[in-house]
Each structure stands twice: as structure tokens, then as C-alpha cells.
Design goal:
By secondary structure, this protein is α/β, with parallel strands linked by helices. It is built from 12 helices and 19 strands. It is 35% helix and 22% strand. A hairpin with a 2-residue loop joins β17 and β18. α11 runs antiparallel to α12.
């Protein structure tokens, strides 16, 4: 089933960690949240790795260096090397380096991860719009980023400098809930300048290119928690994807997803890497999975039956996505989703 015509989640009898050679894993909301490992993540990744699957960590968060991310993962019980980590800072640094000569000064609005990535590409990070930069690079700088840094970016962009953003995720998951992401900070500069940045991170092609170059994956599986970055990035790259429900996306958003936001597979958490996925099959005028059947009645999605809640969600996706076609499903799915308790 092609991604462009996806009308239901796919089934597969082989465990995903055996069917795919490389997992391209998002971090925030997938492996950890607020710095702490998400339930079952460490054990599932360990088993997948022992079975021969290459694990690569692909994050839109440009704050930390690959070394720091790998160290954090290892501390959590997920052994990793810096070469296993691909960040949007690396993707945006390559994007800038492709357009500017080596040694160019770049105003950095962000953290150490962005500075290190720029130096890796032969660019010189500077801190002020008065330091003669020829471009602006903006990435997530952490919760303590001061207002003066956004003003510095606005001064430079208003002088006509090209502006690059590592990513535009409006939110990020944290231990206390959903918090503003780099996209919110980018909006501050956009409002102050009227300019539009060149963006490198998921779901855009520069991030996919960076990931392929650094991992060498032959049959990759994108694993993420966001429809608008992870899953859309997989769609744009023409590769399969697994959505886990441990971060930003919830069941209602998944049911309403437009084509580029529809994952190949969906599971509760990273244990889904270690199993196959059940088939979602046409049943009468609806779709069935496990003990559930979902169908459209009037302006509502209706769910009947019983069983594993995730199977019910998969059936709902079949009914909703088929009804929506190339658009987003606007049917009332509230009661049906509520039955699942997801």
C-alpha cells in the first residue's frame, strides 16, 4: 500500500525489528520525556539492538551535542555513541554550509549543539548582530533563553541577513507536560521581522538527507510521537513509520490525520518494535481489527465490539482515513475514541 493512498494502518506478521534494518528514533516523547526514560523504552531498545537492528536517534532538538545526547542515553541504559545521533543542528549547519563559504560568521540563537554543528561544517559562530555575521541560525536554546537573544536575531534579520531555523516544532514534551518549542521562538522573530526562515528539521528534506548520509540505512523505519514532524518526515522521505502514543500525538489527532500524517503502523510505546502488527481489514461498510469494528454513520464514527484498545484505534483509523480520502477526517469521533481509554 503506497503512503499516498494509505487508508488504514498496515499489518505485518514479522516483528518490526526484524523487518527493518534501522530504526530512526525520535527522542523527546519516544525514548524519554523531561530527561527520564519513558516506560518500556530501555528494555525494548535493548532487545531490538540485540536482535541486530541498528538504532539511530534523530531529533529536532538542536540544544545538545550528539556527544551529550549519547551520554544521556547511555546513562538511561540505552548504550549509544555520538555517531548514532543525528540532530536538526547538524542538518541546518549543512544547509548553511551549502550556501556560504567556509569561515563565514553565523549569528547563533540557540545552544551548544548548534554551535558545535556549525563549527563541524567550517562556520564561525558569533553572538551579536554587531559581530559582522552573514547569516542567522536559530535553534532551541532551552527554557532559560532570554528575550534579548530573540531581539538580537530580529536586529540581524531586519538588516537583510539570511535566516535559518533548525526546526519549527511549536511544542516539546516535558516531564510536566507540553512546553513551547523552537517553533514558538521562531514565531517571535517572524513577527518582529516579517521574514521567513529556511528550515532544516523534520519533516523537511534537509533532515532526511542528513539522516540518510549519517546512518546509511537501507530499510529504515521512522519511529516518532508527532504527526507533523516524524510521520510527515517519513512520508516526505518515502519510508515507513511507526507512531507511538507516548508523546504529543493522541488518538483523536491520529484518527483525523491527513494523508501525510498517517503512519504505517501505530502502537502504544516502543515495545511495538518487537512485534508484528495486526491487519486492519474491510468488514461490511467498515473496518475491523481484533475484536473491534469501526464504521461511519451519518456524521459520526462508530466503534463496536471489544478487545485490545489499540486494535480499536487501528479500526477507527481505517474507517476515518477511508472516509476522508485525501483530506482530514472531520467526523465526530469523540465517543468512539473515549471508549478506548487511550
Amino acid at each position: 500500500m503506497s503512503q499516498a493512498s494509505r487508508t488504514r494502518p498496515s499489518g505485518i506478521s514479522t516483528a518490526l525489528n526484524e523487518a527493518y534494518d534501522t530504526a530512526l528514533l525520535d527522542l523527546d516523547g519516544v525514548v524519554y520525556a523531561g530527561g527520564q526514560a519513558i516506560d518500556h523504552a530501555v528494555e525494548a531498545l535493548g532487545t531490538a539492538r540485540e536482535g541486530g537492528m541498528h538504532l539511530a536517534y534523530v531529533t529536532n532538538n538542536a540544544l545538545r551535542t550528539p556527544d551529550a545526547v549519547a551520554e544521556h542515553l547511555t546513562e538511561l541504559g540505552v548504550p549509544a555513541e555520538a555517531t548514532d545521533v543525528i540532530t536538526s543542528a547538524q542538518a541546518v549547519a549543512r544547509l548553511i554550509a551549502d550556501q556560504l563559504p567556509s569561515g563565514s560568521r553565523v549569528l547563533v540563537i540557540g545552544g551548544e549543539g548548534l554551535r558545535v554543528a556549525l563549527r563541524e561544517r567550517g562556520l564561525l559562530p558569533v553572538e551579536s548582530a554587531d559581530d559582522e555575521p552573514v547569516a542567522v541560525a536559530q535553534g532551541f536554546g532551552g527554557p532559560d533563553m532570554t528575550w534579548s537573544r530573540f531581539a538580537e536575531a530580529a536586529h540581524a534579520v531586519n538588516r537583510g541577513l539570511p535566516w535559518f531555523a533548525s526546526n519549527t516544532d511549536l511544542t516539546i514534551p516535558s516531564a510536566r507536560g507540553i512546553a513551547p518549542g523552537n517553533g514558538a521562538a521562531v514565531e517571535v522573530v517572524r513577527i518582529a521581522t516579517g521574514a521567513e526562515p529556511q528550515v532544516a528539521g523534520k519533516p523537511l528534506p534537509p533532515m532526511h538527507r542528513e539522516t540518510v548520509l549519517r546512518t546509511g540505512a537501507k530499510r529504515p523505519l521512522v519511529v516518532g510521537d508527532r504527526l507533523d514532524t516524524d510521520i510527515e518526515g517519513a512520508f516526505n522521505g518515502g519510508v515507513d513509520s511507526l507512531l507511538v502514543l507516548t508523546g504529543v500525538a493522541d488518538a483523536s489527532q491520529l484518527v483525523a490525520a491527513k494523508p501525510e500524517h498517517r503512519p504505517t503502523y501505530v502502537d502504544a510505546d516502543l515495545r511495538g518494535l518487537l512485534t508484528g502488527q495486526p491487519e486492519v481489514t474491510p468488514v461490511g461498510e467498515g473496518f475491523g481489527c481484533g475484536g473491534w469494528t469501526a464504521s461511519v454513520r451519518g456524521e459520526q464514527l462508530v466503534l463496536e465490539g471489544d478487545g485490545e484498545p489499540l486494535d480499536g484505534l487501528r479500526a477507527l483509523c481505517g474507517a476515518a482515513w477511508s472516509h476522508a480520502g485525501d483530506g482530514s477526517c472531520g467526523l465526530d469521533a469523540g465517543k468512539a475514541v473515549a471508549r478506548l481509554g487511550l
